[in-house]
Each structure stands twice: as C-alpha cells, then as structure tokens.
Amino acid sequence: MNATVSQRPRALTLAAVLGAAAMGVAGTAIAQTPAAASVGESDMVRMIANSFTSKGPATLQGVLQRDEMQTLCSQYPDRSKVPDKVARRIEAVEQTKIRYPADNRWLGDWKEGEKVAQLGRGMQFSDKVGGVNGGNCYACHQMTKAEISFGNIGPSLYQYGKLRGNSEAVLKYTWGKIWDSSAFAACSNMPRFGHKGILTEQQIRDVMALLLDPASPVNQ
C-alpha cells in the first residue's frame, strides 16, 4: 500500500465542504420541505459568508460563485433524479468546455500519473496558493491490483486500457471525462479537474497514461 494513502482523507477541502452544504441547502429550499421552506438563496449565501473566511486557495468567492451547471444541479440533492431534459442540457453545455490537447499528445508518464492518483492534497485552506494539487483518484476508484486502499464511489478503473483499447474515441472520452466529468454524466460527483484548473494539462496527460499505457500497473 502506498504511503501517501494516509493523505486521502484531507482531500475534502473547505471549499468542497461549503459547496456541498450550499448545494444541499439550495436543493431542499427549492423542494419546499417544511424545514427548509423559510430558507432562501439569499439566506444561504449570508449564512456561509458570515460563518467562514477565505484562507489560502479555499476562498468564499470560489464557493459562492456557481456556474449554470452548479446552479441547476443544486436543485437535485439526489443526483439520480435529475430529469433527462435537464441532464442532456447540462451535458451539451459542458462538452463545449472541454479543451483537448492542441498538440494531439494524449499520454504522458504513467509513473507521474500514479503520483497524481495517490496524492490527496491541494486547494485546502492549509495549502499554499499555487501549490501542486493531486487527483486523489483512489478515494473513489480501484485502479491497480497492488493498491488495497481505495473507494467505491466511482467504478473500478482496473485494466481500463486493456479492456477498452486506445482508439481516438477512447482517448477523447477519457480526456473529456477527466477534464469535465459532467459533460458525460450530468451533476457527477467527480471533480471537473481540467475545467476548474485543479489539475494541469500535463497532470491529465500523466493520468491518461496511467489509465491507458499497456505498461501501467492499471493494465497488468
């Protein structure tokens, strides 16, 4: 088991906690349940603004400024119940936000990709602004046979490339899913790593190599 696994619990950043809280409050307010009927959007914003302060890369602005996708998804706390029409709209818009590699270089170094997958730090109030972020991939996915500590929120990615190959369609889908997960699954729990600038383009290349390079432990 990789020693960096101990860092994974820290991956839940202040921004993520506040974002989840904001999403839950907004969603229940729209549903107009008895307990939430008196809680409006302005009340929720004021509550967060009065309760927390920006520190490091975890800023109130990052939490309170939601784009169209986040606004729509906050209406559905149970993401399995997003109406098809709304989901298709979200996915269509998010697909326009994917930035594919201009130089057509899809794969980097799988060894570096494994470091990104293992690293669960970044964008927390205790981190330095501009520091290196991790992907924390093992928090949600099984990826290699050797790693015994992994989550199951997302599907297993073990033998990802071995099962799918490396056609252009697979390359584009995999890159797009990492860049902006909601382009393929509206209101996905998976972070929009590229769109939100969590991972650099080179880090995404390295994770792509981890998933698709035949020499990667993912495909053994």
TrEMBL record:
Residues 108-215 form the Cytochrome c domain. PROSITE patterns: CYTC. Residues 1-31 form the signal peptide. It comes from the Bacteria. GO terms for molecular function: electron transfer activity; heme binding; metal ion binding. Keywords: Heme, Iron, Metal-binding, Signal. This is Monoheme cytochrome SoxX (Sulfur oxidation). It comes from Cupriavidus gilardii J11.
